[in-house]
């Protein structure tokens, strides 16, 4: 059975890799892509989503809508130092990659969600579009089966000592999303920094089909990670949907810090000290990193182009 999903994204190199998997895996049915400001400005993240979809020849099947230009309250700060000025350096996608649809991301999300009885939302950028959607159209909530969101960490941040980039970018939106009453799978740094793409995996991509060459180009221009390997943060969301048995999760209540020195941190109630034993999230805490590398190569090698 295929899983119907919508991706809300800020490509971004790892977002581009996540889109690649979602577009090409036959068990995923990607209905819509919405873009948000994050790694780079929203005009660039929208263009980058269009480029990936066009690259795989799916422009007539997967619409792209442009979303929020900035977070709800906090001033916008990009991550071009990690993803380059364009957000997707290292491959020439050409200039002819189509246009976003005329609807805003919020309108497009509303229409696509209401058209389904059940759909999974996969945010891989900050959650601004999702928060705006829930504020404007709360009726969508009952049509969302789950949210599988890249972001956060229970074990230290990549922006501050406790905050991860997607939550740090718009903590107020993250708070709205976590309090929406929808089951959330938290795909955070706790696993994405374990499932590093090894140098060997990256080298093999460069010797594969055009999809592998494209990803190799992007990943070799990616300023995240070290000699130990490169984190493909956002790809872990799609991996979770396809191989939940390869990821260990813990149910808990997750709160979001929206001010102070821990702004943008997720606070997981690991000991169940608050919230009367209730939980609002399944937090991913461990992953089979070897299997992730193997799967990544398999997925790309199967792409016919
Ligand atoms: C997250 O931040 C972004 O830079 C990546 O695309 C990913 O979504 C990792 O912290
Ligand atoms: Ca991202």
Automatic annotation (TrEMBL):
Residues 5-293 form the Inosine/uridine-preferring nucleoside hydrolase domain. One of its GO terms (biological process) is purine nucleoside catabolic process. Gene3D superfamilies: Ribonucleoside hydrolase-like (3.90.245.10). One of its GO terms (cellular component) is cytosol. It is an enzyme of class 3 (hydrolase). Its EC number is 3.2.2.-. It holds the Pfam family IU_nuc_hydro. The keyword Hydrolase applies. This is Ribonucleoside hydrolase RihC. It comes from Candidatus Limosilactobacillus merdipullorum.
């Amino acid at each position: 059975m295929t899983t119907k999903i919508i991706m809300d994204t800020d490509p971004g190199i790892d977002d581009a890799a996540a889109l690649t998997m979602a577009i090409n895996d036959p068990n995923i049915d990607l209905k819509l892509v919405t873009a948000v400001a994050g790694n780079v400005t929203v005009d660039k993240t929208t263009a980058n989503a269009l480029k990936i979809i066009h690259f795989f020849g799916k422009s007539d099947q997967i619409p792209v809508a442009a979303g929020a230009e900035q977070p709800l309250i906090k001033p916008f700060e990009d991550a071009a130092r990690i993803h380059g000025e364009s957000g997707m350096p290292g491959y020439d996608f050409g200039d002819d990659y189509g246009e976003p649809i005329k609807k805003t991301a919020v309108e497009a999300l509303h229409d696509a969600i209401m058209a389904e009885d059940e759909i999974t939302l996969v945010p891989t950028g900050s959650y601004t579009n999702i928060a705006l959607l829930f504020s404007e159209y709360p009726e969508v909530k009952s049509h969302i089966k789950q949210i599988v969101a890249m972001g956060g960490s229970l074990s230290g941040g990549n922006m501050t000592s406790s905050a991860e980039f997607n939550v740090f970018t718009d903590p107020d939106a993250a708070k709205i999303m976590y309090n929406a009453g929808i089951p959330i799978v938290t795909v955070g740094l706790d696993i994405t920094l374990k499932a590093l793409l090894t140098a060997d995996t990256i080298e093999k991509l460069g010797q594969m089909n055009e999809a592998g060459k494209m990803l190799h180009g992007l990943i070799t221009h990616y300023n995240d990670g070290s000699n130990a390997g490169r984190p493909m943060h956002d790809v872990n969301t799609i991996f979770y949907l396809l191989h939940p048995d390869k990821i260990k999760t813990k149910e808990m209540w997750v709160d979001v810090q929206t001010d102070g020195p821990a702004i943008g941190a997720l606070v997981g109630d690991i000991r169940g000290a608050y919230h009367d034993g209730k939980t609002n999230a399944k937090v991913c805490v461990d992953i089979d990193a070897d299997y992730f590398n193997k799967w990544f190569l398999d997925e790309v090698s199967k792409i016919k182009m």
